[in-house]
Amino acid sequence: QPDLSEAQVPPEHRKFQGYYKISRHYRWALGQVFRTFRYRAAIVVEDDLEVAPDFFEYFQAVLPLLRADPTLWCASAWNDNGKEALVDAGRAELLYRTDFFPGLGWLLLAELWDELEPKWPPAFWDDWMRQPEQRRGRSCVRPEVSRTVTFGRKGVSHGQFFDQYLKFIKLNDRFVPFTQMDLSYLKKDEYERFFLQQVYSAPEVKLDELQKEAGRDLGPVRLQYRGRDSFKALAKALGLMDDLKSGVPRAGYRGVVSFVCRGRRVFLAPPSDWAGYDPSWS
């Protein structure tokens, strides 16, 4: 990185100078990859990530999907709700679509950089990616079990979320031969038919019922939220990340967050007549 000068920041953002330097560095580094070296795709990995044995296998398998499906704009190795108690570690081959940009080990195509580079922000690039103007209704692929974990308690964000969530993320420890699998179920039309049918055919339960009933042989259930406060209260009670970015919940797809509670698949979901994200939810 040739520019190691102090970043120019508004006076009220002086304490956020690190975020301005990071955004400047991303712009330069992705420019090198896509402009100077002219690669057609790149995986972005921060320096405080450990990767799973099938990290590259996963990205190699999803790359053709990204090229074939314009409704996908990236693939991420990360599950924001990937704590050990919240995932089915025995189903490490499971992949999902998510409307939330996860980052933390992610794949993008040169075509996306062509689109983002001219308007790249001076700071807070990851939250900028999560705005509707950049996402434009597109989704990412993400795994059930994370293919990265972070050991970066110390960093520009001063350990925000680290002790509460990040240090508990389960790293996949077995190799899944993704390149030998048919991943066409992740294409939008097929995925929505299958996923939404799965979500809305699951019986609805209340939080206290869910917390009472344990057992691995019970089928999937749906926990319904109505409104931002309802979502946040349920997420908090279940140990999920409860923050929203431009109205999108972490790991959510069409408002639905899929996770495991006491060995049971749970869909935290809005009503079936969901009409889109409300960017005022934060």
UniProtKB/TrEMBL annotation:
It catalyses: N(4)-(alpha-D-Man-(1->3)-[alpha-D-Man-(1->3)-[alpha-D-Man-(1->6)]-alpha-D-Man-(1->6)]-beta-D-Man-(1->4)-beta-D-GlcNAc-(1->4)-beta-D-GlcNAc)-L-asparaginyl-[protein] (N-glucan mannose isomer 5A1,2) + UDP-N-acetyl-alpha-D-glucosamine = N(4)-{beta-D-GlcNAc-(1->2)-alpha-D-Man-(1->3)-[alpha-D-Man-(1->3)-[alpha-D-Man-(1->6)]-alpha-D-Man-(1->6)]-beta-D-Man-(1->4)-beta-D-GlcNAc-(1->4)-beta-D-GlcNAc}-L-asparaginyl-[protein] + UDP + H(+). It is a single-pass type II membrane protein. This is Alpha-1,3-mannosyl-glycoprotein 2-beta-N-acetylglucosaminyltransferase. Initiates complex N-linked carbohydrate formation. Essential for the conversion of high-mannose to hybrid and complex N-glycans. GO terms for biological process: protein N-linked glycosylation. InterPro entries: Glyco_trans_13, Glycosyltransferase_13, Nucleotide-diphossugar_trans. Its cofactor is Mn(2+).
